[in-house]
Every structure is written in C-alpha cells, then in structure tokens.
Design a protein that fits this description.
Blueprint (H helix, E strand, L loop, with lengths): L14 E4 L9 E4 L1 H16 L9 E5 L6 H9 L2 E5 L5 H14 L3 E4 L1 H14 L8 E5 L5 H11 L2 E6 L7 E3 L6 E3 L8 E4 L2 E4 L1
Parallel strand pairs: 3-4, 3-5, 5-6, 6-7
Antiparallel strand pairs: 1-2, 7-8, 8-9, 10-11
Length: 200
C-alpha cells in the first residue's frame, strides 16, 4: 500500500526509498531531499560528540547489498568502506577483519548483532584487529554483554542511535549515557503504562 501512504496535500518533489529491512522485508516509502539532509545533519552532529569530522574514514556494516550507483558514489564522497554482513561465516569474518586492518577506519557503524558475532569470533580466535576511535550502533537493541565485548575487543567506546528510516530519533550521548532526542525533526509522545512510560 505504498501509494496510499503518500500525503495527498504535498506538492513538492519526492522520491522513493526503502527501510533497512531489519525486521523483515524492506518497506518502500517516499521522502524529500530536505528530510534526508536533516537526517544527515543530526547524524553528523551526534558523531561529532565522539570526535568525528566530516571526511573522516568510517566503515559501515550493513544487511543490504550496495547495488545502487548513487549509493556507491555517496560512499566514495563520505569515505565510507561498505561491508555487507548478512552471512557471517568464518571466511567472510576473516575477510572483514582484513578489510578493517587495511582501511583503518576512524569509526565503525553497525547493527549490534553483526558486530557481536564478529567480536565473538575475533575474541575466540585471538585475531588482531584495527582499533577505531569509536563505534556507532543502530537498528536493533544492543545487549549489555555485547556492549562489554565490543568495548573490550576493539578497545574503544560505543554509542547507540535509536533509529528511524530517514533519520535517527535519538543518539546516545557521552556525558550521561542517555539519549539526546533530535527534536528539530522528531516529535515524541509518552504514554503511561503499567510498566512506566512508553514512547510512541
């Protein structure tokens, strides 16, 4: 029902994009260049809290293949090493470690589960791996035991983003380990439940 989800009063230019597919089949929907720009701006702001500067090399682990020429150009401009992590067997994980050691990214961005599988393997095999300045996780719940392992293996800090498909809702901050809401572009409602408060 993609077309029925479009705002009927919107007269500007829009283009189709897809969700990450982390919870199933990727969902097609429409967005604008302004929305994407705001999403990147808030992302770069949050990364800057951990020392990121625009143009710094970073590696991105993803569950989606990089088939689009536009996305490959984007990776080139952002100095992004794109690593496909859908199937993680021994051969592929050895290849990922080699790529990290060769590229030496200052930052790594990943789904927590992919990173947990990789760090478990690195730890069990005693493999030497490049130590980035910081790791960013997004897209899934990050478990405490995974966070401990990631910090231990990569010898760096790890900060999380509460994601959205065109922008992140909130980013973890280094000062208090809470989440900073991107309230320039995000509206959150809180509802009282028997378990406390829940975000809508």
């Amino acid at each position: 029902n993609c077309e029925s989800l479009r705002a009927i009063d919107f007269k500007g230019k829009s283009f189709p994009i897809y969700s990450s597919g982390s919870t199933g089949q990727p969902k097609k929907f429409y967005t604008t260049k302004d929305t994407i720009s705001w999403g990147w701006a808030t992302t770069f702001r949050a990364w800057s809290w951990q020392g990121y500067n625009l143009g710094d090399k970073y590696s991105k682990f993803s569950l989606n293949k990089r088939d689009s020429i536009k996305k490959r150009i984007q990776d080139l401009l952002f100095r992004t090493q794109y690593i496909y992590t859908y199937h993680l067997d021994k051969k592929i994980m050895d290849g990922i470690v080699k790529k990290l050691n060769k590229y030496k990214p200052l930052f790594v961005r990943s789904y927590p589960s992919s990173l947990a599988i990789l760090t478990n393997y690195i730890g069990e095999e005693g493999i030497k791996v490049h130590k980035p300045k910081c790791i960013f996780t997004t897209g899934e719940n990050r478990l405490k035991q995974d966070l401990y392992l990631i910090r231990n293996i990569f010898d760096c800090d790890c900060f999380d983003a509460y994601g959205g498909d065109t922008c992140s809702v909130a980013f973890e901050t280094p000062e208090h380990r809470g989440y900073y809401v991107n309230d320039e572009i995000v509206a959150l409602n809180f509802e009282k439940t028997k378990n406390g408060k829940e975000i809508i």
